[in-house]
Amino acid sequence: MSTPELTPLSLDELAAEAATALPTKEVISLLDLNVDLDLGLDLAAPIDLAVAANANVAAPIDAAVGANILSTGSTAAALSDQGVLIDQAISGHAIATAPQDSAIDQSNDVIDGGTADPGTTDPGTTDPGTGGTTDGDVTVPTDPASMLDGDLLNVDVNVALDADLAAPVAGAVAANANIAAPIDAAVSANVASVDSSATAISQQDAIITQHLDDVTAQATADQQAEITQ
After folding, report:
1. Phi, psi (5° rounding) for residue 12?
2. Cα–Cα distance between 101 and 227 in angstroms, integer?
3. How far apart are CA 139 and CA 150, in angstroms?
4. 165-175: buried (b, 16+ CB within 10 Å) or exposed (e) per residue?
5. Pair type for strands 31-44 and 197-220
6. For burial by CB atoms within 10 Å, which of 136, 153, 187, 216 has the most?
7. Starting from the edge strand earliest in sequence, which strands make up the sheet with 125-126, in order?
8. CA 13, 14, 16: angle at the middle one, nearest 5?
9. CB of 168 within 8 A of CB of 46?
């Protein structure tokens, strides 16, 4: 099946079609975005922290492990002997005081940066480019064809931000502590051996005496914050 030859149109035939040439790509308007954001933030985080502790901690650990792995006629012995005598005494005071007085006034709810007087009214002016009226910063077009004018991307963003941030923090920590951790461990192993003997002996005698007599741990954090934003 043969394809018929297509005869291109001449310039006169194209002109007779009454077509209108498209504008150049740089002036085609596809998206017109206008974003107005007014944000007012009032943040306050007064934190008061006080921690006091008296602690006696003892952790005696006794462990023995014996193992024969892939061994024939072998002996593995582990002996762990532990004798622990722990005497812990605390006679004291752990006092943590964190008084905090915060007076925060964040009553400014007006977004700063505006120039318009709320007591006056702008009647608006005529925009000669669009044929519409301009009310403040908003243009109301009356000619629908004018909405197709402009650039490929026209973005108008107005942001007014008013943030009030306050974070007064007061903290106090006091501690009295006795800590003892005697550890006794013995490990023996026979691995891939024949007629072998593995012996591990661990002997520990721990006598620990810890005393805190007439001891005072005191932490005081006094903060007075008066913030007006």
Report:
1. -70, -40
2. 11
3. 14
4. ebebebebebe
5. unpaired
6. 187
7. 125-126, 133-135, 138-140
8. 65
9. yes
For residues 209 and 111, the model is more confident at: 209
pLDDT at 117: 46
Rounded CA gap, 213 and 215, in Å? 5
- What's residue 65's pLDDT? 93
Return the residue matching tokens 């009553």.
107
Closest CA to 162 of 35, 43, 36, 46: 43
Amino acid letter, residue 39: L
User: How many H-runs (helices) and E-runs (strands) does the chain carry?
Assistant: 1, 13
DSSP for 59-90, please give it: --EEEEEEEEES-BS-EEEEEEEEEEEEEEEE
Q: Per the structure block, which two tokens stand in for 101?
A: 């007085």
Lowest mean pLDDT among 86-100, 126-140, 195-209: 126-140
**Which amino acid, one-letter code, is at 38?**
D
Mapped onto helix, strand or coil, the DSSP state of residue 124 is: coil
Pairing of strands 138-140, 133-135: antiparallel
For residue 1, what is the enclosing H or E element?
none
Instruction: Identify whether the C-beta of residue 51 lies closer than 8 Å to the C-beta of residue 177.
Output: no
Q: How large a percentage of the chain has pLDDT more than 70? A: 63
What is the full DSSP assignment across 133-172? EEETTEEE-S-GGGGG-S-SEEEEEEEEEEEEEE--EEEE
Q: Do the strands 125-126 and 100-105 form a parallel or antiparallel pair, or are they unpaired?
A: unpaired
